[in-house]
Amino acid sequence: MASQSAKYSAASSPSKIEGARGSMIAPSLDHLKNTPKLKYLRRELRNNSTMAEKSLWNWLRCNQVEGLRFRRQFSIDQFILDFYCPKLKLCIELDGDYHFHVNQPLNDFKRDEFLREKFGIHTLHFENKIVFEQPQTIINAIINFKNERDKSIASVHTPPVSPSILEGELNTHFSL
Length: 176
Prior knowledge:
Blueprint (H helix, E strand, L loop, with lengths): L38 H9 L3 H10 L10 E6 L2 E7 L4 E6 L8 H16 L2 E6 H6 L1 H23 L5 H4 L10
Parallel strand pairs: 3-4
Antiparallel strand pairs: 1-2, 2-3
């Protein structure tokens, strides 16, 4: 494993596109996150993390991946997410033996669907062994998700093409 104090980033990261309208994209989750009723369970999960969770946390903590802040054992509504990046609305779930029991894949799917539809949170699942054997795969997946999200946001904020450009004239002024 490479030095964990190193910062991880994409070879060419796109420029940040943020603005006043950014907060209007999705509603605030403040009233649904880290609810008091799950406080002790979250603490228990953090204090008794699996080896895979501890190892991945060493990669994600302190904004090491593209400057993104991740939270560990973070609750949204009635669910506790292994790792959560609020800026990307991205959940990282590590799937150990428990996740391969008969009904668990369906339960995971329903939870992921609920989080995506109600809160706009996307979930990436990785088997525990990936953390130990190919941790860069997880880092790359996070970076790819961020880059795709940035491209998506950029396309929303791209001004429409002026008809004069389509007709061959160069117009440097765009209007919305």
